[in-house]
Amino acid sequence: MAGMTISKLTKMKAAGDKIVSVTAYDASFAKLFASCGMDFMLVGDSLGNVIQGQATTLPVTVEQVAYHTEAVRRGAPDAFVMADMPFMSYTTPEQACHEAAKLMRAGANMVKLEGGEWLLETIRMLVERSVPVCAHLGLLPQSINVLGGYKVQGREQSAAENTVRQALALQQAGAQMLVLECVPTELGQLISSKLSIPVIGIGAGPHTDGQILVMHDMFGLNSDYLPKFVKNFLAEAGDLSSAVELYIKQVKDGTFPGPEHSFE
Ligand code: KIV
Ligand code: NA
Question: Which residues, judged by CB distance below 6 Å to any ligand atom, belong to the binding site of ligand 1?
Fold first, then answer.
């Protein structure tokens, strides 16, 4: 959406207006998403999977995310664009600043980092240096070798409480948005209600402040592995722009995600 800012997104949360977002990697789709009224776009390190054909996001570099951010920015000059900091690009606060600068110069409005408490100092340093930060909790694809698989996170009481604690700490450190991936509906709802910053869910149930999907999943282009939270909007809508409009409409009116796309 033209002229979207983090303060507008925060006001949408406060007003109870759902935020809708999608990943984008090139100018043509970015232009389509912007023209349909998408609230923001993410240049995700999922580009490793869907663009490069990698098994995980780990091989993705900052230079590659920057390249795709430039393309998205050209296609959607007025859009709010978030860019992922890839694996091992934010091991220290100093490195994070150095690498985030490349993404901001490429046209990002905000960067996203995966992780909890260990990122607090990094987030403070980025925010103090004028790099807006989105945190990412729940399933962390960059930690797949530690997690041992793409599984729902925060099912046990202690893990859920830990995630709530981390979300509050990340907000306190200056994060202005949170992506919550693959957690039970109840936890998605609890964290969204406890935070004042927008919580954007993917597989986190219908009660988060907004939703995000990988664009290929929205179009049913996912060949072998179909996560539960995915819906093929193209099959229902018939053409690309109608599919995008249907996704936006169903997030805005609360019909997507339904219980069949959520984890109880
Ligand atoms: O890289 C990505 O596409 C993401 C979304 C799944 C949130 O991080
Ligand atoms: Na990502």
Answer: 23, 42, 44-46, 84, 179, 202, 212, 214
The beta strand positions in the chain, using DSSP E, are 19-23, 40-43, 81-84, 110-114, 133-138, 177-181, 199-202, 210-213
Residues constituting the chain: 264
- What phi, psi does 133 have (nearest 5°)? -125, 135
148: helix, coil or strand?
Answer: coil
Q: Is this complex's ipTM strictly greater than 0.90?
A: yes
Domains, the chain, in order of start with CATH, read 6-261 (3.20.20.60)
- pLDDT, tens only, 31-70: 999 999 999 999 999 999 999 999 999 999 999 999 999 9
- Contacts with 264 (C-beta within 8 Å, 6 or more apart), sequence order: 184, 185, 186
7 appears as a binding residue in the annotation = no
The pTM for the full model equals 0.98
Buried b / exposed e along 158-189 (16+ C-beta atoms within 10 A): eebebbbebbebbbebbbbbbbbbbbbbebbb
Is residue 39 part of an annotated ligand binding site? no
Mind listing the pLDDT tens digit for each residue in 212-248?
Answer: 999 999 999 976 777 889 999 999 999 999 999 999 9
